[in-house]
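Sorry, explain these tokens?

***
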Amino acid sequence: MSVTETIAKSTSGDTLADVLSLVLDKGVVITGDIQIKLADVDLLTIKIRLLIAGVDKAKDLGIDWWEKDPYLSSKAREIQAVKEKEELEKRVKQLEAKVAKKGELIPMVIVLDPEAMSMFIHETLGHSSEGDHVRAGESYLPTFRGKRIAPRGVTIVDSPKRFSTLGSYPFDDEGTLPQTVYVLEDGVVRDYLTDRSSSTSLHVKPTGNSRSFWYDATPKVRMSNFVMLAGARSLASVLSEVNDGLLIKGMREGGSNERTGDFHFKPNIAYKVRDGELKEAILIPEIKGNALDYLNAITEVSSEWSLCVAGCGKPTPQTDYVWVGYGAPFVKFDRRL
């Protein structure tokens, strides 16, 4: 029996509604290519891919973009409204917050939230661990390789496979299978992030951190998912021991000197902590110091932990941006800003 006869028999007697229901239930893909040529030279190719399916079938295939579009989904509009309200409340708190005077000493104990701590380690350790900086003598880390620069329990890794973000990949842009790199392991400086070139110069194996901004851009040594691993104590337990301190939430901008570890950051907002409880908000124009001093001053790492994604630029020679993941727990330091 021919295919045409089979289809004819299976649909004979069915109404148009039955056929349409079958199509929506199973899904139909329509493809087509339009090519424009001149003397056997391809000038333009347009690829058309059309999927016709019911809502349930589309969801089975992982297609649900309409649920996330506020113009098409009331649920998405509600989520967007909640986010806008949270952003507005954050802005109001910033406006109402007391501004710390320049040079004013902040209480001895400070706590960085995951967003702030993620940016701290990304800038002060991430870039300094990139093999091209190490090879060029532009990193402070080689001096401390194999030595302790932070307390036990402070472990920072870079891994494109252990975590799932836009910074993840199955192999780098030189075809190397990526590794989980322990930059700090229990406070001790261990390894660097490398591509094939820097690994040869440094006499180590490539770690699979060669990444390209675009198909025609030169790959560079870049972070993938640069993460500080969580500790064992809850945030509530960590804060309960803070009698007079500060919780910093987020960083607007900042940077670090790869050669020295000196840094400067502008926090989003901070809250006074008294007897383990959050009190009034305060705006801090800037915090600055040296990464080694702060890493040595870590006293607690919380079990609460979060991971986010951002674009990371590297100006060598032109600034290229790639997606990177970065994450951290809440971290307590015993030192002044």
